[in-house]
Amino acid sequence: MKSQTNFLFCLGGHDLEMLTIKQFLEDNAQPLLDKHLSWGATASAYESEIKEAHQQGITPVLIELHNDLALHSEQIIHIDHHGPLAGKTQPTALHQVFQLLSLPSSSWTRWFELVAANDRDHIAGLQALNATQAEIITIRQADRRAQGITANDETSAKKAIATMEIKANGALNIVQLSHHRSAAVVDKLHPALGGIGFRNLLIRSPQELNFFGQGQWVQALAKAFPQGWYGGALPERGFWGSHNLKANTVINFLLTKFNAQM
Q1: Model-level pTM?
Q2: Model confidence over 162-175: pLDDT tens digits?
């Protein structure tokens, strides 16, 4: 393993896990770059810094950054747990950073465990750790804040839920949201936070679709529409999303799948 001082950590889109990683790296005196990116961030956001690091013999560590620069594996360390790297038993980005720095297990805290579980499997992951109600509320509030969700976004999500459609005998809930902060809807619908729950949820946002639900449908969407993104606690459950796909195309695809099982 390379020396800890030989890394340059480049941070991807902000959520609670990414901000936890940032604080963790700062606490361990690791060099990092954070351009306050959003979900779907790419390596090219750090292109000049990556080139400079290579010239200095430093290995860039890309954390949840799509490798759109086609960098070879020997040029970088790529840390992620989405797409083919997703799964209930796969290490989260926080786990991977911790392992990279070869820190003692005593440095792994309850907060880290909760953050990692939340990032992999949302509230179900927290419940699997026997998280208290206070811990669940705290983690989810912190994650929404880290994603930039505002009070107005929360209000819009509540209004969107009020007009939610339920299809295929309850197999699919559809919400039309005026913004792309889908976590505001997902949290409000979860029974642990007072919601009515759902089996599968499709959120329609401007230029974006997000699906949350059973793993078989996440994997079916990822196969049918590979230009999107996916992750979660697969194969049990997870999420999928895409830009610029027509909502009706995805809805019809899902309804065909659901109706075939009835």
Answers
A1: 0.93
A2: 999 999 999 999 99
